[in-house]
Each structure stands twice: as structure tokens, then as C-alpha cells.
Design goal:
The chain is of the alpha+beta class. It has 12 helices and 12 strands. The strands form 4 sheets. Strands 1-4-5-8 form a 4-stranded mixed beta sheet. A 4-stranded antiparallel beta sheet has the order 2-3-7-6, with no helix packed on it. Strands 9-10 form a two-stranded antiparallel ribbon.
Length: 392
């Protein structure tokens, strides 16, 4: 693969930079750069700006509202967005459910749900993990029993989901539910779309180590879901879940965000002092910094290869697990180095220009510990790679 951008790709990058200069709100960029918590309004505003430009669902086919970008254009866009301080798009509708509906959904489901994802009418969250069924999703116990009443078919859902990110903002949730107790574990799961405003749905907050409310528990008690909200075939949800997870794991890699974070780390280390010299000149710190930068450059290449495969009509396979492992390890290492660099000032970090801009390096470090767990723990990803590539 030629890693040099063509003249057309450089022109596209210039277009992206112009768009970000004009359209990215300064207050949102400041929050994203300094690790402050974005509000629901912040996330919805950026979602709407990108949708108005036609750049929101940049990996969707053009006929469904995507921009028709190449893999390299998508890479350029995400890189420049991260460096500029653009927030990460809430992934559940655009990056996760959208591709599943495009590949496996009925035409009626595509016509109804895809436009609502794009225009923000629906805010989706993900109902996969359960107590006792995290990385081992085949063990989900939330049940959906099919029934008919007054000529209307529906599923009666009972169970619990956990670690549900931003469920307190969502009005819809896509869930893995058990529709058969007799089949092999993976063969008795279905993929169901559930309205969060349905009677019997309860959301309870989970406060994480950094003191934030980002994730939740979701309880279902006799929740009635129209049978039309079943995606694909009953008891085939495991296939759809695996397809979705390849997109989630690729996105978790966060190449652009690592590039931006590395730049901030270098800037901070150039100013901070260690034994009378800049921290970046300390041999031990510099060695760790060089190692993570090399790893990041290698991951960029792998990311481009995976995006190229997707653009060619395929779905990322073992490569998505590789990206998930290395991407999360790199992001954790960068946040660890920043915390070490800040020392006692990590909890209240003064920005580069000393203009009162603050960030909490320690809070970001603690929050990033989850990266190697969610989306399927890194240990599980290693098992997937072994099975897919080594036949073990």
C-alpha cells in the first residue's frame, strides 16, 4: 500500500480542514481537547452539523446517505477531526446499528430507521452486556418470548443489561435477547430493537471511577416489543452481533484520537521539567514516548488496510480484533504517560497557554482503563485471532 496521499487526497484534506475551521464550535472543541464531559446537547449539535454537510455516516453506502468516500478519505477525515478537537460521534446508531440494518435489515426497517439515525430523531444505545455475560455474549439471559394478542405479534422481554453507555440519553436500544432455550447458546439469540419509553424499561445510573455518569443498568420487566422490530431472522442474532462488533472494535482503536493525544503529550513533556531539563529529554521517558509513537504509526497502516477492505465490500475480521487490542493499549499508554508527566498536577492540569484551561489527566487515565475491556476484552480478542488466523 502506498501511504503517500495523492494530490486529490491532499485536496480533500484541505477541504476537511476548511470545514472544521468554519463549522466546529469552539466551545465543543475546547471540551473535547481538554477531556471535559460533553453534554447531550454538545453531541447532538456536532451530529447535526455533520449530517447537514452529508459527512455523518461516512462509511455508509451512498444510496443510504453516505458520502461515498474512499478508505483513505475516511481515514483523513477522522484524523483531522481528532486533531482539531472534534468530539467522537456517538457510535451506536451511525457506526454500529446502521451497518447491521443495511446488511441484514428489511427494506421497511431501512426506510424507517436509517433516516432517523441520520437526522438525530433517535438516540440509540447498545444492549449487549449483562451481569455474567460481558465478553461471553453467548451467555445472555435476557429473554424475549413471542406472543400474539388481538392479532398483533410481539415479544415479551424480561432481563437486565449493564454498562449501557449513555442509556440515560437514549430513546432506543438494540438488544441481544434469548429467544430459544433449546438450541446451542449462540443459536438461540435474536437481535431486537426496543423503544426505551415502553412501559417496563428502567434505567439506573452507574457512577464510574472518574466520578462521571456515563454508563447505566437497564432493566426490562414484561416489556412488549412489536415483532416487526426483530432484525433479520429469529435465533440468528449471533451472526448480526458479530458483524456489529467488528465495526465497534475497529472504532475503539481510535487512531485519530491517539494521534491528537500524542501531540498534546509531546507539547506538555516539552514544557515540564525533570531534574532541571525538559521531561521529553529524559532518556527513560523519551524511550517510552518513542515506543508508543512507533506502535501508533504501525497501527495507522493496519487501520488503512482494514478500511480499504471494508470499502471493497468486506467486513473487518481478525484485523478488527488486532486494532482493538493495539489501539486500546496505545491510548492507555498515552494517558498513563500524561498522568506520569503531570505528577501531582495530574488531577488539575493547567493548559499549555496557562489561560485557565483545565483538564484532569488522572480522570482521563482512570476512564481509559475501560478501553481494554469493553467491546470484548483484549483477552477475548486474542482468542478470536488465534481461532481465525491460527486455527486453534
Amino acid at each position: 500500500m502506498d501511504l503517500k496521499f495523492t494530490a486529490e487526497e491532499e485536496a480533500f484534506r484541505a477541504e476537511v480542514l476548511d470545514f472544521l475551521r468554519v463549522s466546529l464550535p469552539d466551545d465543543i472543541a475546547e471540551k473535547a481537547r481538554t477531556g471535559k464531559r460533553l453534554t447531550r446537547g454538545d453531541m447532538a449539535q456536532w451530529h447535526g452539523i455533520l449530517n447537514s454537510k452529508g459527512w455523518l455516516a461516512n462509511h455508509w453506502p451512498k444510496e443510504y446517505g453516505g458520502p461515498g468516500w474512499s478508505a483513505v478519505q475516511k481515514f483523513i477525515f477522522e484524523n483531522e477531526c481528532a486533531i482539531a478537537g472534534a468530539p467522537r460521534i456517538v457510535p451506536f446508531g451511525v457506526n454500529m446499528l446502521g451497518p447491521v440494518l443495511i446488511k441484514y435489515g428489511s427494506e421497511a426497517q431501512k426506510r424507517h430507521w436509517l433516516p432517523r439515525i441520520l437526522d438525530g430523531s433517535d438516540w440509540w444505545c447498545q444492549g449487549y452486556s449483562e451481569p455474567g455475560a460481558g465478553s461471553d455474549l453467548a451467555s445472555v439471559r435476557t429473554t424475549a418470548v413471542r406472543a400474539i394478542e388481538n392479532g398483533q405479534e410481539y415479544y415479551l422481554v424480561n432481563g437486565q443489561k449493564t454498562w449501557t453507555t449513555l442509556a440515560h440519553y437514549a430513546n432506543m436500544i438494540f438488544c441481544l435477547v434469548r429467544t430459544s432455550q433449546d438450541a446451542r447458546k449462540q443459536e438461540g439469540i435474536s437481535f431486537l430493537l426496543i423503544d426505551m419509553n415502553t412501559p417496563g424499561v428502567e434505567v439506573r445510573p452507574i457512577i464510574t471511577l472518574d466520578g462521571e455518569h456515563e454508563v447505566n443498568e437497564v432493566f426490562f420487566t414484561d416489556v412488549r416489543v412489536p415483532a416487526a422490530n426483530l432484525v433479520g431472522e429469529e435465533n440468528r442474532g449471533w451472526t448480526y452481533a458479530k458483524y456489529l462488533l467488528t465495526y465497534e472494535r475497529t472504532n475503539i482503536a481510535g487512531v485519530g484520537f491517539s494521534v491528537a493525544a500524542l501531540g498534546r503529550l509531546k507539547a506538555a513533556a516539552s514544557k515540564l521539567q525533570s531534574n532541571g531539563r525538559a521531561l521529553i529529554d529524559d532518556p527513560l521517558f523519551a524511550a517510552r514516548l518513542a515506543r508508543v509513537e512507533i506502535d501508533l504509526e504501525n497501527m495507522k497502516t493496519t487501520n488503512l488496510r482494514v478500511l480499504a477492505a471494508v470499502a471493497g465490500g468486506g467486513a473487518p475480521g481478525a484485523e478488527s480484533s488486532m486494532l482493538k487490542i493495539r489501539g486500546t493499549e496505545i491510548r492507555q499508554e498515552i494517558s498513563s504517560l500524561m498522568r506520569r508527566a503531570m505528577g501531582p498536577y495530574a488531577q488539575q492540569f493547567i493548559g499549555d497557554d496557562n489561560d485557565g484551561e483545565t483538564s484532569t489527566a488522572a480522570a482521563q487515565y482512570f476512564n481509559n482503563r475501560k478501553l481494554s475491556i469493553f467491546g470484548g476484552s483484549n483477552e477475548i480478542q486474542k482468542n478470536i485471532i488465534a481461532k481465525m488466523m491460527l486455527g486453534l
